[in-house]
From TrEMBL:
It comes from the Bacteria. Residues 360-553 form the VWFA domain. This is Substrate-binding domain-containing protein. Pfam families: SBP_bac_11, VWA. InterPro entries: VWF_A, vWFA_dom_sf. Signal peptide: none annotated. SUPFAM superfamilies: Periplasmic binding protein-like II, vWA-like.
Amino acid sequence: MGAAAVAVLVVLAGSWYAFRKFSQTSCGSSTKLTISAPADIAPALKLQAADWSAPGKSDDSCVDVEVIEAASADVAAAIAATSKKSLTGVGQANGKTRVPDIWVPDSSLWLQRLRAANPASVPTGATSIARSPIVVAVPEPIATTSFGWPNAKIKYTDLIAKVSGDQKVKLGIVEPSRDSTGLAGLMTLAAAATASGGGNATQATQIATAALRALAAGRSSLKDDLMQKFPRGSDPQALSAGLTVAPLSEQSVIQYNAQQPPVRIAAIYADPAPVALDYPFVVLNKDRAATAEQLLKSLSGESFRDRLGAIGLRGAVGAAGKGFQTPTNAPPALTASQVPEAAAIEGLLTKWQAITLPARMLAVIDVSGSMLTKVPTAGGVDRMTVTLEAARRGMQLFDDSWALGVWTFSTQLDGAKDYKQLVPIGPLVSQRNQCLQALQAIRPKQNGDTALYDTILAGYKAVQAGWDNGRINSLIVMTDGENDDPAGGLSLDQLIAELKATADPAKPIQVILIGIGDKVGEGAMRQITDAVGGGTFVAPDPAKIGDIFLQAISLRGQAAQPK
């Protein structure tokens, strides 16, 4: 039986095993050690734990080791939940996954994301115990004819050009917010798309947005679902119907080809190499640190590297052990990957969320006189200009599945009403230009005040009136001031009471309030969003409104529940 077949049998043997490194007669009690690891490395860890836990194999003679298969995203959610945090696109912990003594996620990207949520959530200095590079997976016939594989050197910018210029190319990715392979591929593709702009910021944004939209259209929640999209036959019709390009781990390609599919997948090692899966060994329980260190020593040896090789993984430094089925043109060893900064990771995932989640949104923009205030950090343009630019750029991320409406507000904009509808909520596929033209025509009202509370209630009711079960329904209000209505209008308490009376739990609506500048009533805004569900975001420097806008849009991935 081949090594790959053995690996498959090992994976199917069970979801978890417990190995006891003690004898019933000699140990009155044992040290318990739980390890959580994803399915792609758990088989090797189980075998190594069984060997290490055999009597007489190490200094510690009484250890009970349990290796539990758990997706990295699920464990990360459980760790984040201990500090009442959540990760972008991951959501809340599922209630079943427990925080282990030792965690072996598939990538250090998870550690960065957790540190962004809470710097103390995971320790620093984790040791890598295995590695698998991220490759561009392409059906071999297409790789040969379209990319010159295996002879040509391929760059990610070449890939972006191919995706942009050929509508027949079907790009796929595993959901990046929950999958390290998808995230590493997304980061590399997004950087290549931006670089393809040739220094032209507008063109770079357009190329990057198009690439992200193409990825979003081809995303899959699970790796197995994505793999099923590759061609099931080598004839032209089957090839054109199947998936063309996807970032995957080297291990995934090895295991796929080991099943002898109708069309093999080429692993293209494109330049620059994305962040590789590095499987850090993370000790979460300090009381088990000494025992964990003993186990870690056994994972640095040749026997563990060979067990990794049998399931398509490389050793910690990138060298392959026995049984490793080396793909064509695979590098014999790997250089250490530089894990991106947490801010860069979260920034990209925020943009990804903004692109991928379908929504029905009413955008309401403050046009009071204070929006004419100049912004020194934005070259001296006024608040209105930077706000509208943020809105326009945000719209570039919204695909045609979105529904959007545009209002403005100040005081007495439409007769006695303090708000004015410019574009009703409707599908962008038919009114994108109308929305853009409306934004372009917006001008502040000289000496206009800020009837914020009346506008929020009216906007909420407008979103509720056409509530769509198939989308995330939200109201987003951008303002640079506190509620100021000379005609009276609702008080804060009255607004909250009206919103609560109007709200329907079966039809949730997110209220997203964005404050621009340092004169906003942030406390009152938070009371509103806490009461009905949503979030408040403030950009003290109006020049940063674009970043804040993306953060606010990404909130749509969370449930719109009041606190």
